[in-house]
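ESCALATION

Customer reports they have been waiting on this structure for their group meeting. Please prioritize. Original submission:
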Amino acid sequence: MKRDAASQSMDSELEEAICKLAWLNFARARGDVDSCAALLSELKVLLTRIPSLPPSFEKTPNAVEELKIARAIYENAVILSLKIKDREALERNCCQLKEFYINTCGMIPPSPDEYPFLGLNLLRLLAENRIAEFHTELELLPLEALNHPCIKYVVELELSLMEGAYNRLINARQAVPHETYVYLMDLLAETVRDEVAECSVEAYDYLPISVAKKMLMFTSDQELLEYISEEQSEWEIKNCSVHFDMAKPKSHMNLPSFKLFKQALSYARELEQIL
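Update from on-call: job pushed to the front of the queue and completed.
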């Protein structure tokens, strides 16, 4: 009797998950972000009561269906975190979803979105300039994954980044292999722009506005000026040029601590002469 009651309870939870997932897909299709967020919260709580899911992977009568439903829920969670541009939630949901892709191999049929989402996770690491983690994740993928267009796309982006071919990297935004990649491609563009800006400060005292605009991959002077105002407050616009003097690291020779150190050495020498 206890077994039957438990089975019926699990069946009802599975039915509830299926129903709410259908509503979630409907809300997502309508672009109703608030409803999606509410339904996802309810579904994640519901998943905690299902023992067939990782890390326990209990072999329940409905294990296959439950794993497939849970995977679909986390795929939706990744998409929602992209829509609301929540980077912390994106990282968390990508990690949880990866568990289903890696540890349910052979237990349930593969998801048609598996490689696009694994490629998305790689792109997330690349956009955050976490190159070591990017290569670690890449090495964990099966060989056949490397031939998938989404994975190849991100690998080529990383190659362009390492080669310093920034224009090629920025232009790749026009050819994203999956609609979910657009937000992260914008983040990657910001990362690249910040890298170029940092190198410009080190390499030049100033640059003509036209040159700075091209180097930082802006299409208009106004975009460049807005970037300087919002992100590079120490840069100055003078005589139709961008000046980096205020942003350059100050020489240690001018630091108060260095001056005190020099003064102490001078006193020590004078004391030694007296003695």
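Sent to customer with the following note: Residues 2-30 form the longest helix (29 residues).
Escalation resolved.
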